[in-house]
Amino acid sequence: MLTAEALIPANDTATLERASRSSLPALPWRDVHNVPKEELTSFIARLERACLEHPDSADLRTCLGMARAMNLEVYKSIDALEEARTIDPTNFWAQMKYAELQYRLRVLNLAEPETRRAMDLAENPMQLALARRQLQEIRRFAREGARNVHWTKPLTAPAIALSVMLVVVFAAMLWR
Q1: Is residue 92 within 8 Å of 123, Cβ to Cβ?
Q2: Is 138 in contact with 99 (CB distance < 8 Å)?
Q3: How does pLDDT run across 101-118, given as a tens digit for each residue?
Q4: Which of 175 and 171 is assigned the larger pLDDT?
Q5: 125-143 and 108-121 are packed helices; what angle lies between their axes, rounded to 10 degrees?
Q6: Is the distance from CB of 102 to CB of 77 less than 8 angstroms?
Q7: Within a domain: residue 175?
Q8: What is the number of domains present in the chain?
Q9: Neighbouring residues of 50: CB distance < 8 A, sequence distance ≥ 6
């Protein structure tokens, strides 16, 4: 079994010591807003190697998805979280972080059912409270007017109109 301590660099003794005496998961940093880009990139590389070594670990893929989201790699983050959900469909954290990413991207029509699914997977009151809070926020955003644009209409007519307008403007500029 891979532990979180294995992902922490050996020379980071303070974090290793804190991880060994804490009941919280070991993190190489405490303030996620001030993580140096190089550290985050290095951590993502270690997570990718760990995922290759342990292909059946939904927890590692969830951590990888979260790290990639912090690094603003949205599509890779979605892919990692979807893989985690595929590996273990009953993993609360994989489901919750996938729903949270959708919520943060303001894809509310997808975030709400995914958060409800995470509520169904909650194993303790803390997880349930976390999912309920997120669901409240999603519903508040939807109620207060966050727009969810559904791309169900074809864009061929506006694209043709724009093209015609550009040709007319170009022709007018050449005429002068």
Answers
A1: yes
A2: no
A3: 999 998 888 999 999 999
A4: 171
A5: 160
A6: no
A7: no
A8: 1
A9: 2, 6, 7, 57, 60
